[in-house]
């Protein structure tokens, strides 16, 4: 069984709260990171509302809704995981993690299909056959690719961490019952989810 | 855990330097002290590279025609100088070296809250630095350290992507360090060390960490957007697609102005420690100092537009940014006044680190006051992109920050290595640095006022005299920077044993052996008094006891 307490801590409660503080501080920096993209989106939307509106009609609303449902469900399974993890239920924890992993992977798969469709429709900024001929439409798609791309990258990293955590919990490689590990992973995953909750209306709904 | 002898000193056990001699024991260490040393080594390496680029710049500018390098090479030289110095020297300079080494010692802790993350941050920094270095070796970058669009995104054929990725990755390293510092200060303070008893060095590192965590991601996203524009041809800043290159400047300066405070705030902390010790005085106005630090950290986020007065932003925005920039001078001035008041009535001695610290106050004040000139819109319109700006920020960054870094390095060198350096040579280097710095950069104020723009490799003949003065000063400055490498290097092998507390300073880091043991302390200290208790508040300060160079207990020990 791995040692839960790490240097320089002598008290597991204090160590837990330190770990939780650490992830909250990291999430604050993530919010600023995505904030730059949201700022750019907002500035250009204000300047080029027609182009944004026309371009948004080209995004695939159905797949966007499916993905939102998948990601919200994964957040629920993640929250479940943290909750049963605190109770020390190993099998339930592993199940919750695997469910999250499956839902997250499904999200990325759907996103991949969507990207494929987008490319087939030449929804690429600067492409000679770009279908929407309104100023600002290409800018919308520049942000569409940048924002969903960076969000997808965060999801991929999160899925990697979750996959490792499945292995670590199953084999008791880490002291997941005592430390804040699951809580930390859960908070990161929820941030990725929250970012999508903003991206979905901005890229699929508002002004459609 | 360490055992202690009858007097409570740590018994003879290997100090952190003797805890292992293999390369592996250094590269896989989680000891904050060793990580501080690792950072020191990489940092000095980058400092030398950035300094070499500066040497070529001053050499080119020694004569009016562009006769040493081509205009294009010159662009790459000053970009290299800026990128390396800002992100791989100044930003991590104090926090990652002295901060890493001293923060746990100064708060009576055994290590950082996250020792492995601490080591990881060094490796991330190394990867970022090597990428930036690769960009340089492959042919360099010609955009200037600011990576302004649309030049960086649409027109530059140089290795912008690689350099931007290097800076992007190094950003994660500073975020990791900042996060670690914040959590460490919250969770690892020893018994009795309340927030209002923290040394101002710790407060400064804490405020810096806050700024690092909240500002650095803005740089990351700005650079990520440039990279995406270059690699995937997304038109995020491309006017042809309705984009606005000025948006990049807003996001960039939202980071890069707070970054100025990331660079200078730790220097404030270092200087406070040194000044109080060598004037044997309590710091004047401790609470005001704390709130000034926090105020600067907060206000620093709301002044970025003063870099963009001539970018075409609205006049109202410029006026408000101008006003806010004047306001941030208030907490900065509070600090300068309080340092002066701390010296008043103290028993001042002029050790090398004190000379560096006093130099810091003078140069920082000059840099700060010329900053007020530039914060005023009409003057900035006249001075923008001239050597006046270059001189201004070098007074803050080099005159201020590098002086503070050297002040701290000399102050804590006996603690870090357990050895004393040659005080005479150190004082000489400190004086030379002050002299050489002013010699180099004061003429640039005049050049800028006369209208010489920055970033040109040739200039009209009437600017020649001041440029020659500046280049001559740079030679002195270079000598002053190289001297510490020699005498500090020699001290490691030949220096006298320093003893636990050669300066009779009051910080917790001086209450353990020099160099400290792996666990920092025997039993953790318990704090019962205010910081800087060099004298009781109802008493006058008194001179240091005994011979000023008198080594104490550890001198006789055999290690």
UniProtKB/TrEMBL annotation, chain A:
Class in the EC hierarchy, top level: oxidoreductase
Start and end residues of each Heme-copper oxidase subunit III family profile domain: 1-208
Protein keywords: Membrane, Oxidoreductase, Transmembrane, Transmembrane helix
Pfam name, any one: COX3
UniProt keyword annotation of Oxidoreductase present: yes
Keyword Lyase: no
Gene Ontology MF, one: cytochrome-c oxidase activity
Listed name of the protein: Quinol oxidase subunit 3
SUPFAM superfamilies listed in its UniProt record: Cytochrome c oxidase subunit III-like
EC number in record: 1.10.3.-
UniProtKB/TrEMBL annotation, chain B:
Pfam families named among the record's database cross-references: COX1
Domain Cytochrome oxidase subunit I profile, chain residue ranges per copy: 26-528
A Gene Ontology term for the protein's cellular component: plasma membrane
Topological category with respect to the lipid bilayer: Multi-pass membrane protein
Gene3D superfamilies found in the cross-reference section: Cytochrome c oxidase-like, subunit I domain
Any single GO BP term: respiratory electron transport chain
Alphabetical list of PROSITE patterns matching this protein: COX1 (PS50855), COX1_CUB (PS00077)
Domain of life assignment: Bacteria
Transmembrane segments: 37-57, 77-107, 119-139, 159-183, 203-227, 247-271, 283-304, 316-334, 355-379, 391-412, 424-446, 466-490
Pathway linked to the protein: Energy metabolism; oxidative phosphorylation
Ranges of Basic and acidic residues composition bias in the record: 530-559
Keyword annotations of the record: Cell membrane, Copper, Electron transport, Heme, Iron, Membrane, Metal-binding, Oxidoreductase, Respiratory chain, Translocase, Transmembrane, Transmembrane helix, Transport
Catalytic function, reaction form: 4 Fe(II)-[cytochrome c] + O2 + 8 H(+)(in) = 4 Fe(III)-[cytochrome c] + 2 H2O + 4 H(+)(out)
GO function term, MF aspect, one: oxidoreductase activity
Keyword Cell membrane among record annotations: yes
Region Disordered: start-end pairs: 508-559
Subcellular location: Cell membrane; Membrane
Function: Cytochrome c oxidase is the component of the respiratory chain that catalyzes the reduction of oxygen to water. Subunits 1-3 form the functional core of the enzyme complex. CO I is the catalytic subunit of the enzyme. Electrons originating in cytochrome c are transferred via the copper A center of subunit 2 and heme A of subunit 1 to the bimetallic center formed by heme A3 and copper B.
NCBIfam families the record matches: CtaD_CoxA
Family stated for the protein in its record: Belongs to the heme-copper respiratory oxidase family.
Alphabetical list of PANTHER family matching this protein: CYTOCHROME C OXIDASE SUBUNIT 1
Protein name: Cytochrome c oxidase subunit 1
Native source species: Roseivivax jejudonensis
């Amino acid at each position: 069984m791995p040692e839960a307490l790490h240097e320089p801590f002598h008290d597991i409660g204090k160590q837990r709260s330190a770990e939780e503080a650490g992830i909250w501080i990291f999430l604050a920096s993530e919010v600023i990171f995505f904030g730059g993209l949201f700022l750019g989106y907002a500035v250009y939307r204000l300047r080029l509302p027609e182009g944004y509106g026309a371009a948004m009609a080209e995004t695939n609303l159905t797949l966007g809704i499916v993905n939102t449902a998948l990601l919200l469900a994964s957040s629920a399974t993640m929250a479940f995981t943290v909750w049963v993890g605190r109770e020390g239920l190993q099998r339930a924890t592993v199940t919750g993690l695997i469910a999250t992993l499956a839902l997250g992977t499904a999200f990325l798969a759907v996103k991949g299909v969507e990207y494929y469709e987008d490319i087939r429709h030449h929804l690429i900024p600067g492409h000679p056959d770009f279908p929407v001929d309104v100023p600002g439409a290409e800018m919308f798609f520049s942000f569409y690719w940048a924002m969903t791309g960076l969000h997808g990258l965060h999801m991929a990293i999160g899925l990697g961490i979750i996959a490792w955590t499945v292995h670590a919990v199953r084999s008791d490689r880490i002291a997941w019952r005592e430390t804040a590990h699951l809580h930390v992973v859960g908070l990161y995953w929820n941030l990725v989810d929250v970012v999508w909750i903003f991206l979905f209306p901005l890229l699929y709904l508002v002004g459609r | 855990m360490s055992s202690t002898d009858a007097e409570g000193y740590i018994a003879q056990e290997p100090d952190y330097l003797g805890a292992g001699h293999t390369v592996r024991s250094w590269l896989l260490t989680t000891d904050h002290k060793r990580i501080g040393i690792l950072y020191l080594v990489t940092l000095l390496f980058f400092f030398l590279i950035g300094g070499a680029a500066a040497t070529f710049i001053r050499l080119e500018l020694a004569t009016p025609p562009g006769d040493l390098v081509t205009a294009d090479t010159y662009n790459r030289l000053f970009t290299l100088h800026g990128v390396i110095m800002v992100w791989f020297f100044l930003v991590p300079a104090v926090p990652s070296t002295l901060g890493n080494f001293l923060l746990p010692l100064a708060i009576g802790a055994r290590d950082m809250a996250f020792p492995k993350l601490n080591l990881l941050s060094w490796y991330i920094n190394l990867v970022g630095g090597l990428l930036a270095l690769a960009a340089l070796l492959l042919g360099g970058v010609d955009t200037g350290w600011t990576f302004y669009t649309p030049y960086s995104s649409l027109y530059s054929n140089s290795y912008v992507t690689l350099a931007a990725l290097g800076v992007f990755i190094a950003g994660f390293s500073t975020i990791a360090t900042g996060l670690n510092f914040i959590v460490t200060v919250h969770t690892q303070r020893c018994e009795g060390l309340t927030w209002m008893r923290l040394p101002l060095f710790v407060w400064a590192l804490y405020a810096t960490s806050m700024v690092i965590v909240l500002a650095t991601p803005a740089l990351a996203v700005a650079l990520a957007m440039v990279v995406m524009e270059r690699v995937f041809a997304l038109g995020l800043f491309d006017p042809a697609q309705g984009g606005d290159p000025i948006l990049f400047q807003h996001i960039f300066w939202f980071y890069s102005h707070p970054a100025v405070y990331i660079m200078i705030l730790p220097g404030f902390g270092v200087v406070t420690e040194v000044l109080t010790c060598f004037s044997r005085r309590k710091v004047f106005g401790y609470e005001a100092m704390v709130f000034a630090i926090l105020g600067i950290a907060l206000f620093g986020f709301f002044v970025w537009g003063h870099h963009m007065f001539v970018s075409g932003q609205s006049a109202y925005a410029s006026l408000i940014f101008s006003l806010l920039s004047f306001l941030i001078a208030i907490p900065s001035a509070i600090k300068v006044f309080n340092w002066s008041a701390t010296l008043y009535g103290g028993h001042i001695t002029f050790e090398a680190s004190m000379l560096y610290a006093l130099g810091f106050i003078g140069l920082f004040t000059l840099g700060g006051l010329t900053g007020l000139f530039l914060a005023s819109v009409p003057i900035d319109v006249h001075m923008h992109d001239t050597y006046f700006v270059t001189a201004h920020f070098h007074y803050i960054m080099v005159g201020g920050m590098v002086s503070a870094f050297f002040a701290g390095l000399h102050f804590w060198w006996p603690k870090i290595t357990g050895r004393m350096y040659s005080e005479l040579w150190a004082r000489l280097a400190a004086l030379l640095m002050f002299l050489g710095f002013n010699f180099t950069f004061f003429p640039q104020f005049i050049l800028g006022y006369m209208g010489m723009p920055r970033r040109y490799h040739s200039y009209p003949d009437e600017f020649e005299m001041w440029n020659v003065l500046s280049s001559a000063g740079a030679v002195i400055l270079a000598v002053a920077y190289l001297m510490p490498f020699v005498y500090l290097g020699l001290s490691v092998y030949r220096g006298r044993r320093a003893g636990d507390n050669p300066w009779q300073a009051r910080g917790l880091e001086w209450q353990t052996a020099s160099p400290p043991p792996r666990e920092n302390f025997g039993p953790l200290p318990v704090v019962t008094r205010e910081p800087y208790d060099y004298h009781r508040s109802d008493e006058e300060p008194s001179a240091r006891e005994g011979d000023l160079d008198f080594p104490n207990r550890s001198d006789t020990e055999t290690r």
